[in-house]
Amino acid sequence: MRILVTGGAGYIGSHTVRALIEHGLEPIVLDDLSRGHREFIPEGIKFFERSILDTEFITEVLVREKIEGVIHFAALSNIGEDSRIPLKYYSVNVGGSVSLLSAISAAGVKRIVVSSSAAVYGLAKKDVIHEEDECAPVSIYGETKLIMENCLRACSNQKYSWMALRYFNAAGAAEDGKIGEKHNPETHLIPLALKAVMGSGNPLTIFGTDHPTPDGTPIRDYVHVDDLAEAHVAAILSKESGVVNLGTGSGNSVKDVLDLIEEITGTKVPMLIGTRRAGDPPKLVASFDRAFQILKWKPRKDIRKIILSAWNWEQS
Ligand code: UFG
Fold first, then answer.
1. Is there a catalytic annotation at residue 89?
2. Is 72 left (phi over 0), alpha (psi -120 to 50) or beta?
3. Given ligand 1 and candidates 11, 166, 181, 189, which is best to mutate, with the most ligand atoms within 8 Å of its CB?
4. What is the pLDDT of residues 109-161, one digit of tens each?
5. CATH superfamily of 2-172+222-249+286-295
């Protein structure tokens, strides 16, 4: 089965391309390399360096390459940047999805799986979040992902089936240390803390110790990128439509993560205590019951494996 992977040179996209190959599927990558990395695409995999906004070109590729399913990662995902350049976020994340859906409709592709995010929930009111809980994004990024989901729902009209995977905190790296998290600028907790340990980054600033959580730092549901990749394989092979959370069902605070990093690396994380970052919810933990029911998916790698693999990647 041939799958077009948009954004396949990015972090979660490149791990998914590997997982598709391991499962005997045939990925073809489309990425404009504005955020992705050419070297993350395995040798021998067909690659088109193109914008997601190029509907005509994508339609041609879908038809010519006899594509049966599309996994759509190509998007901007930096909270903070989104409020500085909102139009760019609407253009790439909403306009890009509309462009892709137009191409899919024109080419008659029957299955699409898209990257969504826990950011669609905003400031969660519950300890564990289910898919039917209220969506009230507090970032432009989260809003663009919610609009994309609504667009898929509104346009599918039985022409294609679709699934939007709402990731919680993607983290970790491939076991062989050849691909991993590489954002520019980096804003995520685990890579920043590891760079601080290695002395290749600034000391880590903890964004507030006065959150309403047991140790005062925010709790997140960190899910290994290889587990996310496996979920995409299951999702592209499924025919079900709807939104599905991808998380582990349990959370770790910023302090828990930093303690574990110190234990694993044997080094103190150079750190400063800062103030809260705007829009940071105190706790975001997913229920993955639906992913288990529909996709038979469950996470296999815990927070220790996440940090070990990320440490291996940063060192390589
Ligand atoms: N944090 C710090 N210092 C830093 C970076 C992060 O204390 O330098 C804290 C944050 O306050 C947060 C936790 O570490 O409590 C995790 O922060 P990340 O930036 O790693 O991740 P987020 O939870 O902010 O964001 C993630 C995804 C987004 C997604 C969002 C959903 O990366 O794509 O969850 O809320 F939109």
1. no
2. beta
3. 189
4. 999 999 999 999 998 888 899 999 999 999 999 999 999 999 999 987 768 99
5. NAD(P)-binding Rossmann-like Domain (3.40.50.720)
